[in-house]
Design brief:
This protein is an alpha+beta fold and about 350 residues long. The chain is built from eleven helices and ten strands. The strands form two sheets. A six-stranded antiparallel beta sheet has the order 2-3-8-1-9-10, covered by helices on one side.
Length: about 350
């Protein structure tokens, strides 16, 4: 019999043992191995000192400093005539016996098998991470991505029968993504846009801050928060625009508050917006209106029915939100020109 095995480094340390995790597919077992300090680099005056490092990276006669850099918990250790840098993560394993007959040469079937198990393992590990994040108040800890777990097929002796089919492609894709802060490599257009922003002066609007919060949520692997924040971003932007329009018409503040609090977002973008700005998303931007309605439906599924959100869903929501904010800015500019 062969077994599918998923291995991952968790972004924190836990006690060694078995952890039962309830998922939508039923209970799953996660095995956490013994925590050990794994040096990446050691500098010593004598080679044998590197062999005497404490197994957990802490001990009498040593000074240590620990920090989190996803997905690793890193520790630097200083002792007499020795210094070392390494990881102190907990390592998690999920296994699932394969009872069906397999044809290892059937690439398509193997890819489906790996994909299904990888999705299950990733969901299980991220459910564990979410519980630890809440229970331990580790708010800075992020979920894992598919490229951060290693899936193999092993025989009953533990030998690898088939490596992770997707690992090489995903590792290459991850390496190609620029996650650095070296902005000196940006092109002239980027700096022209930056200068335009600086020339405008002032502070960002609340909607712009919320949009950045949504982008941050997605970058930290929280697609649900990204989606719901996109909704709040749009509502904030259109409400601000409607408030300006109602004030121009002399509507009392109490009535403004009552109108904005009693109408849903779709109504604000359609009937209210056309009344107080002369534009309506539904009529003037039909493609964008359709995208907004898809965002709205998904947001309702998340908020009211607890549905999950995929990363592509969240990215699509961010794209819609950016485009909608740009259109609302255009509406605001045209209103300003007409009132001037």
């Amino acid at each position: 019999m062969v077994t599918l095995v998923a291995f991952a480094s968790l972004p924190f340390t836990l006690r060694q043992g078995q952890y039962r995790v309830q998922t939508a597919s039923g209970p799953m077992e996660v095995h956490i191995a013994e925590n050990r300090f794994n040096p990446f680099l050691a500098v010593t005056s004598r080679p044998e000192l590197a062999q005497a490092l404490p197994h957990d990276g802490q001990g009498e006669g040593f000074t240590s400093y620990t920090w989190y850099s996803h997905p690793f918990v890193l520790r630097v250790l200083f002792g007499r005539n020795v210094a070392a840098l390494g990881a102190i993560n907990s390592y998690a394993t999920i296994s699932q016996p394969v009872t069906e007959k397999l044809d290892l040469d059937d690439t398509a079937a193997m890819a489906r098998l790996y994909s299904t198990f990888a999705d299950l393992a990733l969901n299980t590990l991220n459910t564990l991470i979410a519980a630890v994040r809440r229970h331990g108040k580790l708010y800075h800890v992020s979920d894992l991505r598919r490229d951060e777990i290693h899936v193999t097929l092993r025989d009953d002796r533990g030998y690898i029968v088939r490596e992770d089919l997707l690992q090489a492609d995903m590792t290459q894709e991850e390496q190609e993504q620029d996650t650095g802060v070296d902005l000196a490599v940006q092109d002239a257009a980027w700096y022209e846009t930056l200068q335009g922003t600086l020339d405008q002066g002032g502070t960002a609007s609340l909607a712009e801050d919320l949009l950045m919060e949504a982008e941050m949520s997605l970058s930290r692997r929280f697609p649900r928060q990204a989606l719901t924040t996109c909704y709040s971003t749009i509502e904030t932007a259109v409400s601000a625009l409607l408030t300006k329009g109602m004030r121009r018409r002399g509507v009392p503040e109490v009535e403004i508050d009552q109108v904005l609090s009693s109408k849903n977002l779709a109504c604000k973008l359609d009937s209210l917006l056309v009344r107080y700005s002369g534009f309506t998303l539904k009529r003037d931007q039909r493609v964008l209106w359709k995208s907004f309605m898809e965002l709205n439906a998904l947001r309702n599924d998340v908020v009211h029915r607890g549905e999950r959100v995929t990363e592509p869903d969240a990215r699509a929501a961010l794209k819609t939100t950016r485009e909608l904010l740009e259109w609302l800015d255009t509406v605001s500019s045209r209103n300003h020109q007409m009132s001037g």
